Amino acid sequence: MATSYLQVENLTKSYGDRMLFRDVTFGVYEGDKIGIIAKNGTGKSTLLNIIAGKESPDSGNITFRSGLRVGILDQTPLFQKDDTALGYCMRDTEHLHVDEHDVWTYEDRARQMLTQLGITDADSPVSTMSGGQSKRVALAKVILGNPDLIILDEPTNHLDIKVIEWIENYLTRSRMTLLMVTHDRYFLDRVTNKIIEIDRESIYTYDGNYDYYLRRRQERIEAMSAELAKVKNTLRKEQEWMRRQPQARAGKAKYRIDAFYDLKSRSRINLSEDNVELNVKSSYIGSKIFEANGVNKRFGEKIILDDFTYTFARYEKVGLIGPNGVGKSTFIKMLQGIVSPDSGEWNVGDTVRFGYYSQEGISFDDNKRVIDAITEIAEDIVVNGDVRYSPMQFLTHFLFSPADQQKYISTLSGGERARLHLASVLMRSPNFLVLDEPTNDLDIMTLGILEDYLRNFNGCLIVVSHDRFFLDSIVDHLFVFEGDGVIKDFPGGYTDYRTWLSEHTENSAPANKTSEAKDNRPRRERNEARMTFKERREFEQLTVEIEQLNNEKSTLEAIFKSGEAVKDIIEKSTRYEEVKTLLDEKELRWLELSEKE
Fold first, then answer.
1. Tens digits of per-residue pLDDT, 511-539?
2. Are residues 347 and 403 in the same domain?
3. Which of 266, 282, 299 is where one domain is finished?
4. Which of 17, 127, 332, 580 is packed most tightly, with the most Cβ within 10 A?
């Protein structure tokens, strides 16, 4: 039987008169990789915060296994003013049982882990880093702590796709037990083996990945709908029975009267889904969209665009991908005239009406109410040519109730801010949407609705996103920012590109001389990026050892589960723990070396 790491019993939490969840009970066991799914505002992050001890429940208990090592990655990690990447990872090593003799080894591991996560200068101050870079530093520290249980709140937000895939591969192979909130559907599908959904103040557990959850959730909703129809049908009959002889009610069977009131209560369950309504059509767009002619842009030594020329066609939908900091956001700001090129020109068509969803978020005054902020933009909102809304009516389509519209913007959650930002963009009926990381802070249900809207959007679209599922769902082709001003135009979605890249890398691997000739990095950097002969031998040996250890572990588990008496049970139990520790160490080293393949 799997070891219990965490037990949550009868947990209840509310804010004022808003109930998030009631009497929630579930367990986390060794080997679980659990994803928590729910609409924004229904308690995902709150549940994680309660488990992590950062918030208190109204009632209920949380019990961790004694001695359990827990690592926590917050959605927005906190750092001290003078933290460097390495200094942050090295802080509090005494709590990790790292003695003075092992500090140097731990420091080497920390530097390697930071490098794997794209932090090449371990001594750089965290205060000068982007949000994505600082999050990678926090993640490195969590992993280095070698926790038994790792708690992650939106781990993929603000990270580029390469880093997301590294984390995905690491967590898939790692033996760490995992409890996380994320809206990244590919990440959920490939990493998790259990889904917990918060819905209507209760939780539902599904033993499988995200794809399995989708199928079983639909079955659950259909079963609940059928049950509700049956309850309402029975209730109508019982109401007639209750009305027929009111004067003799005292003599009626008490159990039937009790059953009537129980049916009445059950019939009030609301199975309708409150979802964002994106029913805004684009305005007319002409045949000329934009032309880029010989555009160049650099910041110091960093080249963003190098003689970029392109003619954008009507109804094109293109995704922008590439590492953080390579210039994707600068590109879309230049297109809109927010940033000027060093040379060259953008010629934008007269009918183009941009709608810009920026990564920085809304620029509304935090001291204003939601309704006032939208009213300042327009007191009369006209969409689809002739459909008129008041600001209050329009906001209801984005799940802002009349009470929510009176909230101050400073009090809005990340999801509410994202929806308000989206409303402010679409209320102008744009015909060219420019979306910079639109998936951050939107829940999975809203993302699905946004994807449907964009697929049918009768206009143009440029989207910067690290969400691979989102890109696969909506774009026709990709601009791949490769660095040094190079942009590759790839026909297809992200999965198509990833498949092509994998095949292209394999086919070109033997041509070392050609590859090296095209590699403009200094020789020292190229050599460090490849395996040495010694590392190659180590990698091959690790592959064999990991397979042997997994076989030994399976054999020991079979013995433990057999129910038969084992003479040397203590020795076998001790060896079992040693095998698990060795697997963790060797798999981590295997992952580090595999990045050099």
1. 433 233 334 333 333 334 456 656 667 77
2. yes
3. 266
4. 332
